[in-house]
Amino acid sequence: MASILQAEGLSKSYGVRTLFNNLNININEGDKMALIAPNGSGKSTLLRILAGKDSSDGEGSVKLMQGAKVAWLEQEPELDPEKTIFQEVFRASEALSAVISEYELALLSHDHKRVESAVHEMDIHNGWQHEQRVKQVLSRLKLHDSERCISTLSGGERKRVALASIMINEADLIVLDEPTNHLDLEIVEQLEEYLGRTTSSVLMVTHDRYFLDRVCNHILELDNGTLYTYKGNYSYFLEKRDERVEISNTETERAKNLLRTELDWMRRMPQARATKAKYRINAFYELKERAEKRVDRKQMKIDVGASRLGTKIINCKELTHFWGDYCTVDGFTYNFTRGEKVGIVGPNGAGKSTFLKLLTGEIEEHRGVIDRGETLVVGHYRQDGLSFDPEETVIEAVRKIAEVVTLADGSTISVTQFLTRFLFPHSSHNTKIDKLSGGERRRLYLVTVLMKSPNFLILDEPTNDLDIVSLNILEEYLLSFPGSLIIVSHDRYFLDKLADHLFVFEGNGVIKDYVGKYSEYREMVRSLESEKDKERAKEREKAKENTSKNPAEEKKQGAKLTWKEQRELEDIEKKIEALEKEKSSLEAALSSGILSPDELTKNSLKIGEVISEIDRLSDRWLELTP
Description:
Elements: E1 3-14, E2 17-28, E3 32-36, H1 43-50, E4 61-64, E5 70-73, H2 85-90, H3 94-109, H4 112-124, H5 130-140, H6 155-169, E6 173-177, H7 185-197, E7 201-205, H8 209-215, E8 218-223, E9 226-230, H9 234-268, H10 278-291, E10 314-323, E11 326-335, E12 341-345, H11 352-360, E13 367-372, E14 378-381, H12 394-399, E15 404-406, E16 412-414, H13 415-421, H14 438-450, E17 456-460, H15 468-479, E18 484-488, H16 492-498, E19 501-507, E20 510-515, H17 518-548, H18 551-557, H19 563-592, H20 597-624
Parallel strand pairs: 3-7, 3-8, 5-6, 6-7, 12-18, 12-19, 14-17, 17-18
Antiparallel strand pairs: 1-2, 1-4, 8-9, 10-11, 10-13, 15-16, 19-20
């Protein structure tokens, strides 16, 4: 299989801090790769270098297959704020954009040969259908109002626009940095399905473990500056990584045992060292280096305590809220209980964040009552994070909250000790927050939430920017959390592992309580959708049968369409047939080479109008023949 990308000797350092050194990477056609590494190890930096957005230190190089295109999705996409959604996505394919631009310029130039060449290129690249393809992709990603300006979009909507641009681009290599962040669960599944069937090679960083399992066939692990490759999905990687670590540590122990013997030999006759075999001395130092290479898994340790929680927690009765004319919460009644773990799911804009703000008292309800218990201590981990002062150091940020932290066993420790449990060693405590990676900032934010010992914990997208090892540890802590827990997350694995039941936000203030795991809920939804598809298929079959019957039989059995609609359908079919003939005639004329410049321009404009009218009538035909 041909190689799409070859990278050799990649290195990157910032000051005295080395992220990685002398890495070699090869990506073949059809590879679906994920890069896994702890926060702060340079995952995003490595992706940027491979995508051509940054450069390696020293003599490191990245070589692409000749003519190969790379599509790049960063965590916070840079879009033109002045463009509309449609304009941003329409121009996403550079090659096709150039073809369409040349066609438009050719028409203005009245140059016969130039227009003829431009029309030919439009035919080759299927430029006539580009607008329709853009509309289809935007519809699939639920970007229905394509004339909205980019500057008015939310983070999730901007991410969907960037993804639409990638889907239109049809690149040979797609590089994605945390593609599922800020997306609702339905869009995550759409993206998963697209990446699973695309023939493009894919390289991504993501914490979504279901996503990794279902999309990827290779895992790259960056561990202590060394890159390891696993030919399999995430489950395979977990198994083989444990084997690798165990083998490495076993070899290290053997080296240590042998080192004791060699060390004794080196010490026994120091006066004769000059006469000792040089190869044995060299072997001693190589052995010493191997003996020091034990793989130590530095992991977060979460054992913070929770404040005492009384019998009354948060009781809601007929809770109702509006944003303008839109109802976000409509008559919600529920009493939260100690130890329950609730997952919140629903599309972006359905009112999930508003609901959380109502519970915490950040905004007030319009109707209904929220009764909060006297012992309630809320810890709210927000999706947009905490606004740290970038000039503050790590230790200054946490000392503003407390000097000591109470653990689960009732003992207390200093905030400096607490930071080390969250992988902030003493050497990092005086580091300015502005110098931390995205994942390190999210981890520090988690520290500030948990050190208050909350007994009612709200986690709004906690998995964004946290590495997989940290997520596993957070999950284990939350499983034994004695208070009440609310989780808003697009991470299906995270929801499945923690949530006992779901609040499903369906829009217009409707909130339904589903008892069960998220995967079970999605299976139920798919089953219902499948039943609806079967019903629609039956209706289409009946419609076909009706159209094949004579008018007397239709009148006897009842037609699906009204008389007016039937006449419209027949008229559309005749118009489409006539337009197809006109299109063929125009194509023949444009290719003849005998038209004058004015005639060529006129026919070029006309064929675009004809194709648009065929598309419009075809859409209406589909509506009338479901």
